Amino acid sequence: MVSGTVGSLVAAVAIWLIPFSTAGLFWTLVAVTIVGVWSGSRVERLVGVKDPGVIVIDEVAGMMLSVLLVPRTIWTLLAGFVLFRIFDIVKPFPAHRSQSLGGGIGVMIDDLIAGLYALILLMIGVRLLG
């Protein structure tokens, strides 16, 4: 859980510091996801453990997705971080079930689902408060 929080926090800071456009963040998310699926499979094979804690690229992808379609202010990044971490830890349906998928897909998909849930709530919040 600590490595996931650190990975998500590093991603949030990078998103804050790098002036991504929405399209730029989207394509970076696609690239991170592809690399994550590939590297997640390799690390699982090397370590011999399913979704080991040393893999944090999945948290990076989930954090990126959680703020993809909202204005990236300090407040939306903070809210996206908190919401993403909650959903990543709780793993609501189908995130928990998706972990049974093999290899890098299984590593990445639960965090992408958590990021999607966070994004939906964040978009609702921005709409209601903005």
Secondary structure elements and pairings:
Blueprint: H1 2-17, H2 22-47, H3 57-66, H4 74-90, H5 95-98, H6 103-129
Helix pairs in contact: 1-3, 1-4, 2-3, 2-6, 3-4, 3-6, 4-6
Write a structural description:
The protein is mainly alpha-helical and 130 residues long. The protein has one domain. It contains 6 helices and no strands. α1 (2-17) packs antiparallel against α4 (74-90), α3 packs across α4 and α3 packs parallel to α6.
Q: Compute the number of structural domains.
A: 1
Secondary-structure-derived class: mainly alpha
Number of beta-strand segments: 0
So how many helices?
6
Radius of gyration: 14 Å
Envelope shape: globular
- Main sheet properties: none
As a percent range, the share of strand residues is under 5%
Low-confidence stretches: none
Helical residue percent band: over 70%
Structural key phrases:
6 helices, mainly alpha, 130 residues
Describe the structure in brief.
By secondary structure, the chain is mainly alpha-helical.
